[in-house]
Q: What sequence folds into this?
């Protein structure tokens, strides 16, 4: 078990292009989260999955953003028609949720997106 | 709406000092509070998790306390070392709001040799 893995580590793209990030959670973890972090700020929640079901989406997640978790394993986050304001670190986290949800989250190293 | 605030935003101390980082939150209806460490350009590493029924947690030179009724938590670092230099983030897990964490903006700590 190597922890939460995110690819790519860095992505530079031109405004208007589409980008896709991948997250591989810790094996057996049933919950997977996506967060976005800008410089000098704490991470902001975007969305989360329990197994393959997407249970919650933040209002930050405009219709240009879509996330999937097919088969309840890895997840992808796609941003269509990127804008300069999308430049941020995109963090993925996973957890094993049992009972009332008092679980600890484990974060990946993130994907740093720069939109030129 | 839950809001989390961390004070100070940045802190610089000489090596060996004991220090306290502060975190406050506006809604006491939380499942737990976590403290994370983040190195520049990296992801988050969980340091301590305090459940709502607990008052404190300790790990090595770190001690975190939680006063849920007053909406406050502190992270105490004993005998600071240059390797402790990083950004420290606290996050609360609100009740009945799914699985998300609400983060503060972090305290950037620099420990000078």
A:
């Amino acid at each position: 078990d190597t922890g939460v893995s995110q690819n790519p580590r860095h992505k530079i793209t031109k405004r208007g292009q589409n980008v896709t990030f991948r997250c591989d959670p810790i094996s057996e973890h049933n919950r997977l989260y996506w967060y976005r972090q800008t410089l000098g700020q704490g991470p902001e929640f975007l969305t989360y999955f329990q197994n393959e079901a997407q249970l919650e989406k933040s209002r930050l997640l405009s219709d240009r953003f879509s996330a999937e978790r097919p088969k309840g394993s890895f997840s992808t986050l796609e941003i269509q028609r990127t804008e300069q304001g999308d430049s941020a670190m995109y963090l993925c986290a996973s957890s094993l949720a049992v009972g009332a949800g008092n679980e600890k989250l484990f974060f990946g190293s993130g994907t740093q997106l720069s939109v030129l | 709406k839950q809001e989390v605030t961390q004070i100070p935003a940045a802190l610089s101390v000489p090596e060996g000092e004991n220090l306290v980082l502060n975190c406050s939150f506006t809604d006491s209806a939380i499942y737990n509070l976590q403290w994370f460490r983040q190195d520049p350009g990296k992801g988050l590493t969980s340091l301590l998790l305090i459940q709502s029924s607990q008052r404190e947690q300790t790990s090595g030179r770190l001690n975190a306390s939680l006063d849920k009724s007053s909406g406050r938590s502190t992270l105490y670092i004993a005998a600071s070392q240059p390797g402790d230099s990083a950004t420290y983030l606290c996050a609360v897990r609100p009740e009945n709001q799914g699985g998300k964490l609400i983060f503060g903006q972090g305290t950037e700590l620099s420990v000078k040799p």
